[in-house]
């Protein structure tokens, strides 16, 4: 790392200690110790030691990780009962947060630039190169944790990185060096997408730019981000789902985002019923249309790297993460590797019941219900996922930050809510959509109204 930051030798453990002090100094409410904000910060911070213990293969690592994840899951289930959401300003103003976030981003990306990317990340980029050259990889024995959608993203990034490498290099660039450069650019762009998504949601959906910047800075400061900073199979799906939330007023676009995420990893498939019920009958058709269209296009991209129908069939089948559905302990890694497969079956059954429950309850969902329930469903997959279940914190971390910082979002209705309410009232003679009382605006740090009459334009864009 001396080539980027001379003398910088901070490891993951030291980073965890330093970031803990910064997070407490900036976000902890010292004047109100017993508050929901402090509880959420404690749950976020207790995850980091568990992830470090997993790296050191300590016996208490996975029990600690599963306990912390279980507490977060219960917090998400009970989120709608926390009706009092006072505005908690950070202990640092906006300019200071921007400076702190910029410095933290520089240190994190220095790790990405100087250290070699993980093998799953490199293999995903190689699939992108094969897509560009239309090379058949159906006989490849190399396993990859992400589906064909990752190759679609990596392909254009590979073209750009190849042009940059050839123009700035003093010697011929080897294919492996170009693959590593592409992987690093892909990781950096994915983290930038999450940062931009958090700021956008804070400004447009929460009506407070300061909150958006605070969420982005906390995302960068948390040790779990630094521990898995180079894992594109965690960062890119999280970015896609985050932007699906940001653009929830456009059901077809959100459906396409989640469809693309389904083309990378398995877990977004459990979000589809929840989002469909959130949008209602008309919006669900648009959402499912976008989801099916994008997912079909992702699978059809395999035709470019298939020589015949047999090759296409092999690659389509291999695109499914069969390891996540396996009940063979030999295929497991982590907590479930020491237990019989029979113990995992009731966990999956309970999870499916939870998926059905959160899909239909509550019946009238707002944006705050969509965010909390989506996060809970992603967190729930950690308990039965066989390949090191529990460590995939970045899958749900951006959404969890939205739950932690969000104000009341009763004004954020699904698209077409007003028209559906009028239709029901006209047919039944009564309004079945019971609106909750309007939330009074709360003064911000500057004395201005934080929720900014909830910006009526958000319901029209």
Count of DSSP E strands? 0
Report the radius of gyration as a whole number of Å.
23 Å
Strand content: under 5%
What's the domain count? Answer: 1
Query: How many distinct helices?
Result: 17
Specify the helix fraction band. 55-70%
Average pLDDT, all residues: 79
Termini Cα gap: 45 Å
Organism: Polystyrenella longa
Region (Disordered): 413-461
Transmembrane segments: 12-30, 62-82, 94-115, 181-201, 213-246, 252-275, 287-305, 343-363, 391-409
Keywords: Membrane, Transmembrane, Transmembrane helix
Describe the protein's architecture and organization.
Residues 413-461 are annotated as: Disordered. This is DUF2029 domain-containing protein. By secondary structure, the protein is mainly alpha-helical. The chain has one domain (12-420, 442-459). It is built from 17 helices and no strands. It has helices at residues 12-27, 36-55, 61-77, 94-114, 119-133, 148-168, 175-204, 209-221, 223-227, 232-246, 251-262, 272-300, 309-318, 344-360, 367-380, 397-405, 417-428. Helix 2 (36-55) runs antiparallel to helix 3, helix 5 packs across helix 6 (148-168) and helix 15 (367-380) runs antiparallel to helix 16. The longest helix has 30 residues, at 175-204. The two termini are 45 Å apart.
